[in-house]
Amino acid sequence: MEVLLLLGLPAAGALALGFLGARRSAPELNVAFSLGTFLAACALTVRVIDHGDQLLAHEQFFVDPFNVFLVALTAFVGLTTSLFSRPYMRVELAHGRVTARRLRLYHAMYQLFMLTMLTALTTNNMGLLWVAMEAATLSTVLLVTLYRTPASLEAGWKYFILCGVGIAQALFGTILLYFAAERVLGAEGVTALLWTHLNAVKSQLEPSVLALAFVFLLVGYGTKVGLAPLHNWLPDAHAEGPTPISAVLSGLLLNVAIYAVVRCKILVEGSLHSPLPARMLMGFGLLSVVVGALLLWRQRDIKRLFAYSSVEHMGIVAFAFGMSGPVATFAALLHMTVHSLTKSAIFFTVGHAAQKAGSQLMENIRGLVTLSPTIGWGLMLGALAILGLPPFGVFASEFLILTTAMREQPWATPILLAALGIAFAAIFGRVQPMVFGETTARRLPHPPALLPVFAHLAIVLVLGLYVPPYLADWYRAAARLIGGL
Amino acid sequence: MTHLPWDLQLLNTCAALLLLLSFAMLSQRRIVTLVDLLAIQGGLLAVATLLLAWRTGQPHLYLSALLTVALKVAFLPWLLHRLIHRLEVYWDTEPLLNISGTLLAGVVIVVFAFGLAQPITQLANTTMRSAIGIAIAVVLLAFLMMITRRKAMSQVIGFLSMENGLFFGAMSATYGMPMVIELGVALDVLVAVLVLGVFFFQIREQFDSLDLHHLESLKESE
Amino acid sequence: MSAAAPQVTELVTQLLEVVAALAAAPLFLGWVNQCRAWLSNRRAPSIWLPYRNIRKLFAKDAVLAENASPLFRLAPYLVFSTMVVAAGIIPSMGTHLPLVVAADAIALVGLFATARVFLSLAAMDVGTAFGTLGARREMMVGFLAEPALLMVIFVASMISSTTALPAISEHLVTQSLGLYPSLAFTAVAFTLVLLAENARIPVDNPATHLELTMIHEAMLLEYSARHLALMEWASALRLFNYACIGFALFVPWGVATGAIGPLGLALSIPVLGLKLGVAGAGLATIETVSAKLRVMRAPEFLATAFLFAVLGLLVHVLLKA
Description:
The structure holds 3 protein chains of 3 kinds. Chain B has 7 helices and no strands.
């Protein structure tokens, strides 16, 4: 029932906004549907807390602690982003960067995007997971090109082709998975792709085929995670699309993609009994951390800056999942949560800051604090949070990851530390003059929505000081599941 | 050469022709012909699916053959032809690598693909398991085509051809994926092409050309 | 007597085969020319025209360039004799031949290459611009066609696990009828190589002396009388030989296999005639419907041939078909 609501609401929202999206009240409608989705997600969460794992609709949907926390997170960020996008898109409309017709496309695709992500998270069927991931790409391609500028078209094209090719690799991996599963589970069609069934027989699956499948799946879904060297699409798509889309891409899509990778890793590790998948994840993760941190230095566009920061953080998460102890997995889950909240909060402030300055180039954004203290401080706090300063949650998760790394993969610790240091210097050095100093910014026709920013930052702060016991239990349950202990 | 039943011989011939078609696509400079080749590829896939359906008696394969004909032989080529005429892109004359070089690279790729398919082929128990290597080769050759072409249209055709190869791979390894998934994939492909259609017009509006070297300004060299 | 009898017939077949090749090669060329004329709505020349040409040339006095070396004079005989030897090796009528065991298919390719080398050397010998130009182009074509031809032979050899042409032929005859994509691919490759190696239309035009495009004719410009006659005869033989290799690899039916009796021999002659007739008509059709390629595109043409042959090989390895 909750799942039906969870998926039905965005579907209905996409349909309704497809017709009504050009109206003046469309942003409110968007918020309403997102709120409904969030409530459904809460209900589902409560149900999983009360009753444990849920298998629904002829086993087609499966909800366990691992994905329910992501569902809740996704629905929450979806809601706050829709709140943020309400004034933001109105300003864009007033500045003439979009037309009412394009707003209709924007709103419909926004809901569709939520639908695909929630489907990808809740489905039990590895094939459907693929279909949903591909649909997520498709629904966002037109959002990235919403402004129809040459740069945005290029970004959209890159996004489409790279992710299209990547996702084709993932399809091949899925076919191989099905191929291996069919030999154990029989050709009775659908069950051979159900994750729960696969998980039950994972030790009997043919290791050589699964190893090959994992390579393809990791490359395929890894492209969407933005793992280096397949990250090229990510900064372009983030920088050239509307800011709310940057926020959900960074905050949510990357999470969903890494969720897909981890689901595959659980299966493959169960079959292989070797550290190969873990090592691959660690390798890709570490490379992304380093590449992301180094490329931060060369950015002039503020959204590209934070997009590369996403590459770096996804690298950290992948590395943590690769270490695959219960503590590391716990830390990885926590990091996914706090990164997604912090990063979307940053994009909210960045969006308004860029609107005020009339430019996304960092040298043109100056002295935010004087004109609008809340935006300025929001950006400053968000940047500090994402850089892993205590007492924010990112500090807690990064600290856990680093200490685990010191114990289990000591060779990697200096690399991680160095990359984090480089990232700190790069981001802090750029954010500081933007927030303080002389201002050039102008007033906006619609007051910015800053509630989402501070709500996110507050949660991140709380998570840094104290992880509520039920949340911790939840993470631990998920970590047990992933760690296979 | 052991003696095979005629339907298997036909299936093998289909597989061989698919490989040949991939090379034909690699060497083809005219975009209109590329679309025709894509349609033929779809047709061969449909024939192979039908033969397999007849051989194994699995009803869902008939459906998927029907879907293939409707989507890949009729609708997508029609759509692409329309797009080509509306956008007036007929040639892709400047591949990044000359044709002979591309073809040689293709041969190397096929050998690599056959090697890659070896473990899967040994495990498969389907009658056309030997075609898995060809399927992988088709996928990789399509990938090569996407890399070496400049025009957006040829890249899209490469993308679709890659999908065809995956479909063929699924068929030869496991008699096709479950119907639900196949439908989902078909839907995604359809939507992808529609999205691209919209996209092309946007690009065209901005640049007056579908040449991708216009899309090379977003670089990390600032 | 009874043990010697098959050997005698084998010897007879061998002789007959060489003689038949010598006699039929100009006829085959005449037939191809006649078909081409018909297809392009011209009045066909007599099918005996090549014979008359050769007779006429033999009757003339030879003129040699002043600076021609002995190699120039020797080359026609060398080229002609390699072609005759090649005709002896190819099983066009029977597979049990005394000469056939002497060389396998790879050696055959070597024979063709020898002929080409001498032809090119002779063309460059006099030092005229056209001769050198033709020789250079001929070497380029040969350089690209040879690997393709070898690859074709490899596929056939892999299928029958032998490199001896008669054994390949025999193996293929005994195969049950079926679809063999690998053989189909190699047949296409072989046809392309045949067109290129015999200076037929997409690569070269045997009927013109247009400086910018010709390859084969450019090399013969300095020859006259009996030398030219031998050269022309040799190129007719080469076409005939290629056709017979094609028959041996792809349509081996009708060749007398095993110990040859007079009956088998008698039967194989009309079959060969029939195959040659069809092949000639086919060749003429291909030449009529295709346009001459620019010389610069010849590598692409031959790359296609090579590709087909390689694909045949790969398909055979993978599909066992």
